[in-house]
Design brief:
mainly alpha; about 220 residues; DNA-binding; about 55% helix; homodimer
Chain lengths: ~220, ~220
DNA sequence: AGAGGAGTTCTACAGTGTAGAAATGGAGGG
DNA sequence: CCCTCCATTTCTACACTGTAGAACTCCTCT
């Protein structure tokens, strides 16, 4: 009764930790983290809110499960290039894609580290690839951590929902003195378009290349 | 009556938006974001909780002010090296230092963008320096954004307080299969110590250097 | 003195997480 | 068959939340 996947809602009207976590994630995606509550989760599950507490000791533990649910959604079947730097970029992009699908849960990913086996295995893949390119394991681990933090940091700024209610209106443009920020004005007038995807990619490539020279990484041949 | 700085509590027992924001930040620092409430803020201010609503329309707006308070704490008087890459690293580190002092508020910084004049001026400094090293303003802006997102992403993972209550206990180490994560085990056995400061610095230098070659930056001479 | 208004307080309401007791229902043993 | 046990679900209750709306207090200006 523990390992049935897919459109889960076990045969008998009984709950599952997985089903609860999935429903919680769906609810957060739909209505936002602030609007999420155990009572609404209970409603979504068509069950008394307190029933959830038989599977999770509290809301925090449920959030941990939600984060892990997201990690399981990373597409690990992507085609990976041969070159080490392109391979790393591919892995990281796959991770970003999965996370990007859950803007309201990003803040949970960012602040609730998970150390369960599936996630560690994921890290292992990256670390091993870097090691194969010549990095010491400790350095590889540090690099992967930087990739991860950059990714969610960038995602938070891009699509992350504000914690603590919607943000206020932007300040009156009239109160800004353009002469104090000439370069920003220049960028704006140059037709500045904010494409988060290409910007993220640019930064990721920069970091990968920089690490490459910093640690002397190359593909073995 | 609007511009008195420092250990602020205006002459008459009356409130100020600044004083409220500062007290709110102090309360968040001391007790955490989840424990923060308008009632406790009122108590800290020795005032009826509802009094705050005369200065901020709601808690979200107050949070915006809290974030801005943190930005004002960035030390802008640091000595800046001549080399463009070292200069950028110095600016970013100063930003990180200010943010690092408020672990419980990091998540607010990460998700509540501020576009007020003081912050834009800060961005201008960085963008202008990059432009002086040969970057087009739009590229410089993109780079600065990457530096910022990397910084708070890294800080969140480092010292950020979990959103939604404390995290649960780590999974039983016995359930982990070491043979599935050999490189991680190797890193651990090699005496892996996690020094967030040097790791952040390493990643930042990598990104700066990578951007440097990506955009052909050099100091004018 | 009287009016007005900015700042503060009071009261109240719907909604929160979750502790603790009570109910439900199915499985196993006699 | 009944009866017991126990996992699961529900019920009730409590202290706490953000904030709407009215009422109250003073200070300032005429």
């Amino acid at each position: 009764m523990e390992h049935n996947d897919a459109l889960e809602r076990p045969t008998r009207p009984t709950l599952t930790a997985r089903h609860i976590a999935q429903t919680a994630l769906a609810t957060i995606d739909a209505n936002g983290l602030d609007a999420f509550s155990m009572r609404k989760l209970g409603a979504a599950l068509e069950v008394d809110p307190m029933a959830v507490y038989h599977y999770f000791p509290n809301k925090a533990a449920l959030f941990d499960a939600v984060v892990e649910t997201i990690y399981t959604q990373i597409d690990t079947s992507v085609a990976v290039p041969d070159a080490w730097d392109a391979a790393i970029a591919t892995y990281v992009s796959a991770m970003r894609t999965a996370m990007r699908a859950h803007p309201h849960a990003l803040v949970l990913i960012a602040t609730r580290p998970v150390n369960t086996a599936p996630v560690l295995v994921l890290v292992e893949v990256l670390v091993a690839r870097l090691a194969r390119a010549g990095a010491r394991p400790t350095d590889a681990l540090a690099m992967v951590n930087c990739f991860g933090t950059y990714t969610i940091g960038h995602l938070l700024a891009d699509v992350g929902a504000p914690v603590g209610g919607p943000e206020g209106p932007p300040p009156d443009a009239a109160t800004l003195d353009p002469s104090a920020i000439p370069t920003l004005v220049a960028a704006y007038e140059a037709g500045w378009v904010f494409d988060a995807d290409v910007q993220f990619d640019s930064g990721l490539r920069a970091m990968i290349a920089g690490f490459g020279t910093q640690f002397g990484l190359t593909d073995p041949r």
